[in-house]
Amino acid sequence: MLIEFSIGNYRSFKDKVTFSMVAANIVAKEKELDENNVFAVDDDLKLLKSAAIYGANASGKSNLAKALKFMKWFMINSSKETQSTEKIGVEPFGLSTETEAQPSFFEIVFLLNGKKYRYGFEATQENVVSEWLFDVPRSRETRLFERINDGNSSTINLSKRFKAEGIYPKTRHNALFLSVAAQFNVERAENILAWLTRKLQIVSGLHDKGYLDYTVSCLAENNINKEEILQLIKKLDLGIRELSVKETVITPDSLPKDIPDEVKKFIFKSGSHKSTTINTLHQKFDDNGNYVSMELFDLEDQESEGTKKIVAIAGPLVDTLKDGKIVIFDEFDARLHPLISKAIVELFNSKETNSKNAQLIFMTHDTNLLSNKLFRRDQIWFTEKNKYGATDLYSLVEYKVRNDASFESDYIKGRYGAIPFIGNLSQIIGEPNA
User: Fold this and answer.
1) Which residues neighbour 97 within 8 Å (Cβ) at sequence distance 6 or greater?
2) Closest residue by Cα to residue 61 from 72, 69, 53
3) Which of 244, 305, 350, 385 is the most exposed place for a label (fewest CB within 10 A)?
4) In what residue span(s) does the ATPase AAA-type core domain sit (predicted)?
């Protein structure tokens, strides 16, 4: 489970932002949402099942998802998919002379096998400046390792409990020790990276076609999630009664005869290829309103962009819910009707459909979801840029809000900030010159 995530320029502490899934100690009317929206890890820690992040365009919402996506990739791949001469893919904050040369800071707090971990690192484009891993085996945090690299010297304080002796000298200046330790079969490092790979997914609502392959594979291979995926698609009022997936093996002989042989050889030098056709089935009626047959539509050519998105994300959503995973969903509401967005959130905020305590974190502009009947205050977050261009991230729980307040109305009125302040547009299109 995800507990917290922090990014920023750590040495300039004021520029660090922290997002938390820890449930606040809320009373009064919002207590009614606890049974569904919150789950207890132990007597001291309760976590949220979902959270929404709002903010104006260019306020930094997507940067949170991008930063976590980079952190995940770097943790998993820095030891094996980068060379010693390669730059690290961090982007320093360029609007301040104080921070533009400072290392970028990343930290994640999570639960793995019932144990709490805190892992993070600082990096410039040239070096990993520092790196640390702590766990909480009982009540107090203990260090598993802590690494410092100031450019002139490099040291590591390593606990025997981490069982990674002799590995640090094999760690490049632009790679993470955790990643290298996993490559050398250090069990705890392997478990952490396996958790990242299997349990934490970052999804773009604008580039969701890439997830269609997963959904299609579940449907085509009679995956254990197949029936739930079909039911989700059917019940979102798309008019779809069934989905048909047909895979055809393409060989050089099946291509048109006018394609030159050398082109065929080039195409198939890695072996045969498959073509997948996805059809949606809709009911067809006569002029008296009687059902007569099922009509096949080609998903790509005949369905709306919203329908294609729902089909694409249906597989990952079902998988996340059934396996207790975490999904970070940027541009969540793109091409989705507000009621469909709300229905997806309710799947996560439910004991029945989310018995494994999966977590949904999404960035959105859909103010229809800003309701005290759907969210507690600690589930609603805002991003706002200050006058220096830096992002401020804060929760609605920081505001005193009446029990009967309309979150949506108050947000649009600017009472929580995080909205665009639009200048006078009346003079943009003037009278044509005489």
Assistant:
1) none
2) 53
3) 305
4) 51-371
Q: Is 295 helix (H, G, I), strand (E, B) or coil?
A: strand
366-380 pLDDT tens trace: 999 999 899 999 999
Q: How many CB atoms lie within 10 A of CB 4?
A: 14
Residues in the chain: 434
Strand ranges (DSSP E) for 10-127? 17-20, 38-40, 46-48, 50-55, 104-112, 115-123
Mean pLDDT computed over every residue of the chain: 86
Measured CA to CA, the distance from residue 434 to residue 428 in angstroms comes to 17
- Do 159 and 211 fall within a single domain? no
CA atoms within 13 A on the CB side of 14: 6
Residue 354 lies in a domain: no
Strands (E), 46-90: 46-48, 50-55
Distance CA 63, CA 80 (A): 25
Q: What average pLDDT does range 284-305 have in this prediction?
A: 90
Per residue in 310-345, pLDDT (tens digit) is: 999 999 999 999 999 999 999 888 888 999 999 999
CB atoms within 10 A of CB 377: 19
At 211, give phi and psi (nearest 5°). Answer: -85, -10
Residue 213 carries which DSSP code? H
One domain for residues 87 and 235: no
Contacts of 50 (CB under 8 A, 6+ apart): 37, 345, 348, 349, 359, 360, 361, 362, 375, 379
Structural domain of 273: 207-323
Residue 286 lies in a domain: yes
Q: Where are the alpha helices (DSSP H) in 276-337?
A: 299-302, 305-323
Comparing CA positions, the residue from 104, 103, 177 lying closest to residue 144 is: 177
Q: Look at the chain and report how many structural domains it folds into.
A: 2
Range 39-42, long-range pairs (CB < 8 A, 24+ positions):
39/357, 41/1, 41/111
**Sign of the Cα pseudo-torsion (285, 289, 292, 294, in order):** positive
Does some domain include residue 41?
yes
Do 282 and 265 belong together in one domain? yes
